[in-house]
Amino acid sequence: MPKAAKRNSIVVSALWARTNFGNLLERVEDERRSLIIEKRGTPRAVLLSIRDYVRLAAPEPDILRIIGEESRAKGTDKLSSQQIDRIIKDTRANKTKR
User: Fold this and answer.
1) Which pLDDT band, with edges at 50, 70 and 90, does 3 fall under?
2) For the segment 27-54, what is each residue's pLDDT rounded down to a tens digit?
3) Integer angstrom CA distances of residue 53 from 34, 37, 50
4) Left if phi > 0, otherwise alpha if psi is -120 to 50, otherwise beta: which for 59?
């Protein structure tokens, strides 16, 4: 049976993790929590969502974080690739007309 550890972690036994692995994978992703797997009461492994793993393995440079925040604030984070390509094309066309 899972037990709470720190705020964002779930602690489970290796047996529990093995028998409930599919559910635990979904929970790690959906709840954005880490999973600590213990064997005989000793922490042995951690299961993270891929997003959390990438964040730990390659932290986002400050400039990319700032650009992302500005994009969300302006609503441009919802643009498709085609919309972005169109904006770039239009901007270049207007630049050459000047």
Assistant:
1) low
2) 888 888 899 999 999 999 999 988 888 8
3) 10, 16, 5
4) beta
